[in-house]
Amino acid sequence: MSNEVVDMITVVIDGFEVSVPKGTLVIRAAEKLGIQIPRFCDHPLLDPVGACRQCLVDIEINGRAFPKPQASCTIPVEPGMIVKTQLTSAVAKKAQEGVMEMLLINHPLDCPVCDKGGECPLQNQAMSNGQSDSRFEGTKRTFEKPIHISSQVLLDRERCVLCARCTRFSEQIASDPFITLNERGALQQVGIYEKQPFESYFSGNTVQICPVGALTGASYRFRARPFDLVSTPSACEHCASGCSLRTDVRRGKTLRRLAGDDAEVNEEWNCDKGRWAFKYVTAADRLTHPMVRNASGELQEASWPEAIAAAAAGLQKTSAAVLVGGRASVEDAYGYSKFARVTLGTNNIDFRSRISTAEERDFIASTVVRAKTTYRDIDRADSVLLVGFEPEEESPIVFLRIHKQVRKRALKVTAIASKLSIGNEKLSANFVCVAPGSEATALPSVALTAQSVILVGERACESAGLLSAIAALAEKTGAKLAWIPRRAGERGAIAAGAIGNLLPGGRPVADASARVDVAAAWGVTSIPSSLGLSSDEIIAAVNKGTIGALVVGGVDPLDGENHHEMLEALQKAFVVSLEIRPSAVTTLADVVLPVAAVTEKSGSFLDWEGRSRNFEAAVVDSLQRSDVRLLSMIADEMSKPISLSTVKAASKEFASLGNWDGAPSALSLTSVQTVSALQANEALLTSWRRLLDEGSLQQGEENLAGTARKPVVVISPKRAASIGVTDGEAVRVSNSHGAIVLPVLVEAIHDDAVWLPRNSRGSHLLATFGVASGAVVTVVKD
Amino acid sequence: MTQLTPVLSAHWDEKDSFTIAGYKRHGGYDAAAKALKMEPDAVIQLVKDSGLRGRGGAGFPTGMKWGFIPQGDNKDHYLVVNADESEPGTCKDMPLLLANPHVLIEGCIIASYAIRAKYAFIYIRGEVTHVVRRVQQAIDDAYAAGHLGKNIFGSGVDLELVLHVGAGAYICGEETALLDSLEGFRGQPRLRPPFPAIAGLYARPTVVNNVESIASVPAIIAHGAEWFSSMGTEKSKGMTLYSLSGHVTNPGQFEAPLGITLRELLEISGGVRAGHQLKFWTPGGSSTPIFTSAHLDTPLDYEGVSAAGSMLGTKALQIFDETTCIVRAVLRWTEFYKHESCGKCTPCREGTWWLVQILRDLESGKGSEADLEKLLDLCDNIMGRSFCALGDGATSPITSSINYFREEYIAHLTHGGCPLDPHAATVFASAKAGV
Amino acid sequence: MADLHNHDIEPTRPDLGLEAVSSAPVVNDGPAPMGKQLLGFWVTFRAMFKKPNTVQYPEVKEPTAERFHGRHQLNRHPDGLEKCIGCELCAWACPADAIYVEGAANTPENTMSPGERYGKVYQINYLRCVFCGLCIEACPTRALTMTNEYELADNSRESLIFEKQDLLAPLRAGMLMPPHPMYPEMNDTNYYKGDVPHAHPSQEVKND
Q1: Which residues are CB-neighbours of A654 under 8 A, at least 6 positions away?
Q2: Candidate from B338, B374, B385 with C-beta closest to A185
């Protein structure tokens, strides 16, 4: 940005000179001087509209005055401009007071019952820029009080000042124009098409930017007043987009989360999952006490010293491995990484509690650790290629950022996938339709330059040879590459070395100097030199009997294809589980240690860019401890200390290690698998997780679940004709493990493919089929 | 005494004036053929020289508007004819289209040629079904005659003319709201800049003209700029249609040079209805400040009316005699504006809602003299604060009527209601009196 | 201010004090004359013949002044619905942070007050309350008022945190115990205007 030349224009506002870049609106130039012009419809990230007329000011240019006050939110600065705001112009002051009086004539006196009361721009500006009395003695316009425009957003039309922020957001930012203004005059109102509620993944932002209490969230309704809340800056734990959030807590309970303001990352937006999925923290079944399996084989509550001792004793007896999920904070992941190497003396650690391959592990060590692509690169890209990645579903802020450029300058987006998604349709993406598993074959057809950005998702590993082909393509074209995992902790886990082939800071385990580096920093004589096993290999090793104990943190067996083997392994091994809520792991574990959720601890995540996203404990009086602290206690008990008794200590030590500056490991090309011929009723399975689905972190928030996209089976028109179904009819998808019956949707999808949501209501692919993509399934009419 | 100068309305009395044959009998489409042989810029220059100003109300020079269209930009240009005539009292475009639709089509051909537009649209208000049918028939006939479509008059020029029927909204007469409506959106005014000449319909350079402006063009081409500018006053050239309505003996359209006075027009039209005197009148529809009998000799051109404190507007002269209650008339107009406010901006949306409530109270004798001040202050807060001119127009009748008839407002308060007999103002009253 | 206090005034004050004490003359004249001593008892004698002011509390309880700030009360509408809407303005106004309120939504099945919102949790901590009455002034619905009751002593801290049920006004004639529907054909504005006279038979809901 710094090398771009910006024309500066100097204007005089209320007698003060200010220089701002050309194109700056008067209202924002005034802000630079600290002069606040009241406004409602104006929003820096939305197109100007000039509807509310609250920001009227007097303007003259080179001695020529406008005959009437102008809306400062629509007029860019010009040389020689002299602006007089309400502070220096009686005309502007009267105009603003007049508009404010008119805005209030039809505004109900709801303030005592309105959720916005106390943080309401209308309330505040009526006080700062309005008159103390209204001269209105007539009848106010009335509407039916709040109507649900979706299960999570309520609309009170009486309170609406018709600023059109919500409708402009939905159209311009989210590209979900499900709400619009209708009717006219004072009866104008925000409305939905009655058959299509406001089911946008980004609807919560409209609640946040509504300058009055017209749009309110169902989950926060009447829960608190602003002065009850203690706000803490936090980061979102739901995906790798890296949104900065604000968590508002009343008496130890999180009541709401708002999008934080970070121009580099999420601008001022977030998705509904990040906003509303936090009830899992206060779920009734939350683990609160340590538990140890007693002599009769039952889990029993235990004291902390007892539980720590039991865990240490069990781990000391045999060789142990670590499975840490993709949701750990950087500090926790670092704790696991160090715990595995120092205390357990092994490199057998893997954060990939999902479908993963050896190719992916090599890709991570060779390519991801070096990737420096950022949101800014998307802003400047000449084209974006999406492979194995659905931004709207899997990293919604990346979607918003791409969409911003698509809208602003028609950024070219190419998507290689088997099914055209809603999100890619909104990005006007060039859809390269391939059969599941054949994505790599389409890569050569995409034209890329050094200004292009390739965004590859974690699902790319499900197609053999794809990741290495992409790495080679990026190398050849010079295009910027980014690997965008779905979970918030994965990029941090890589940096922390929570994977068998990497030590913290991206140091290859295979490199002796890297090992010496880390050993010296940790004050140990050596680091195990053999490459660690992957999740799948660890599970196999347990079942073979070569590994006898597992430390498992935040892993759901149903996230992988081999969950039967995993459950068997959990039964066999001595398992120490660090969890926040009961799961398939905790029920089989020998020691269960409750840990803190994100809102209860401090720490950081690395988003997909590798950018650090810090969060503070919002619920300060929580008794829960961070994983790293418990690991440190176990390590002490085992007399092989990792000395990370606090998150801060972990963070400091991790930072002091720094990044590996040696050569990264090389990546060899993996061959692409050929797909065998399909029988008439057979199809290749393809799927992804929807943003709102049955994920465990979304549990307990019914209002949010109500806006999830309805589960469907998607097949191509050709297949629909051949099996004789039309939209809405039930279709049965099955393999040797099980079957799923769902309504069908005939859409743009490869003829050989069938698509189902991976983990939605009535469609749990891994649990039912044991596979999630690329496998052959039978599709018939039910 | 100024004489009528029928040009547009010259043949309205003929039985087949609306047919292509009737139009051609008097040299119809000759002007278009002539224009297509000229250079487009020469056509623009001719219209500029004629001094033709927009007849939709604002009076912006038509030729200059055409000249704003950037040339050689390799973009589609559009001509849009604003036939959404909805101003209370205004009734000139609809009779024109009913009696002579081909003059508009011919004007469209010439104007489109001048601005290098290959598509032209006529946006007509939805309620006037009979006019819609007649214009559509005329367009079909013009296509059949080869005056529209590909290679018209064998000149190599193409023009597609589309008639679009609005859904009935006053705001769609505002040019940018009209463009939104034409594009299929709700009709609400757009932010300017960009102006339609730069980014209008489908974000392409667009000229939006009133029906009468475009319909005046063929005559200018046919008879020359000098002929046109010989009529009218110094800065308001040419002839125009004046619509007289209300308490007048022979209401209707009167085509006369700009600058004629109401006194002259009343003489031509038989005067105020028998037995009554003029009380107040609007020079250009309800959005223009009203006049009284003191303004009978005000020249009805852009400058003359403006100097007298009003606007020429659409030259819709609504005549009210002494039986009319000013408060009642103003209330009705204000109710219209409240109903037609699009709702986009606060002053117009909320202001009209409030104005109506105050005026209703005043008409029924409630309230106090302080309410008049409140009303004026409210108008001051709306005037010049709203997004488009609709809000301004809503305040005109109120401020001007309080200016001239404050006593009558107060009389409502002291009388406890309207001191006049509303029945006396109706047409039935005159019938009963046998006049 | 703090600096001034610490460095300028404090060090000099002991000096000034010592000076004052040391310079004061010590006087000891012996006992006062008899007349002067009797004069001192005059006040006592005079009081012996006055009507005593002592009230034999708790046997005798005198009425307080009409506007005495006593225990709070949460009022009801004439049909029994609660006036409190859970807006928390009282808690906001409270200088002693003695009030805790949580609002909740009225539903057709559970209508506690007219309109959208009611106070689900309402607590006043009388160990903190200073009886200033700012909460009363803040209340937009006249739900919270003060009674003249002043007997607010107890022997545990918990019992001095009054819950909603402790503060709610009793049901009077014509009132029904909420939850019950609003008066037919009336909206919340009617309630505030006082248009609801008493409970309507249709408001009686059977509790199964």
Answers
A1: A330, A331, A334, A496, A504
A2: B338
Looking at residue C6, its pLDDT comes to 43
Final residue in a domain of this structure, among A439, A467, A484: A484
CATH class of segment(s) C78-168: alpha beta
Q: Does B343 touch chain A (CB under 8 A)?
A: yes
Q: How many whole angstroms from its chain centre is CA A44?
A: 23
- For residues B219 and B250, membership in a common domain is answered with no
**Residue A699, domain CATH:** 2.40.40.20
pLDDT computed for residue A4 by the predictor? 65
Task: Give the pTM.
Answer: 0.93
Interface touch C140/A117, C-beta < 8 Å: no
Q: How buried is B61 (Cβ within 10 angstroms: 0-12 exposed, 13-18 middle, 19+ buried)?
A: middle
> Which of A484, A512, A540 lies at the terminal end of a domain, its last residue?
A484
Among residues B99, B102, B107, which one has the least CA distance to residue B81? B107
Average pLDDT score over residue span A445-457: 96
Residue ranges of the domains in chain C? 78-168
Interface of A with C (CB under 8 A): 112-113, 117-118, 145-146, 221-225, 227-228
Judgement on whether residues A500 and A644 belong to the same structural domain of the protein:
yes
Note whether residue B425 is domain-resident.
no
Q: Would you state the pLDDT for residue A594?
A: 96
Q: With beta carbons under 8 A apart, name residues in chain A contacting B339.
A: 185
Pick from B135, B305, B316, B309: which is nearest to B240 by CA? B316
Instruction: Kindly report the number of other CB atoms within 10 A of residue B252's CB atom.
Output: 14
Query: How much is the average pLDDT of C180-199?
Result: 93
Give the β-pairing of B157-165 and B119-124. Answer: parallel
Q: Which of B164, B194, B228 is the last residue of a domain?
A: B228
Residue A590 backbone dihedrals phi, psi, to 5 degrees = -95, -30
Q: The domain that contains B30 carries what CATH number? A: 3.40.50.11540
From residue B272, give the alpha-carbon distance in Å to each of B247, B319, C121: 6, 8, 74
Q: Would you put residue C86 in left (φ > 0), alpha (ψ -120 to 50) or beta?
A: left
The verdict on a CB contact (< 8 Å) between A146 and C115 is no
- Asked if residue A660 belongs to a domain, the reply is no
B120 and B210 share one domain: yes
B335 touches chain A (CB under 8 A): no
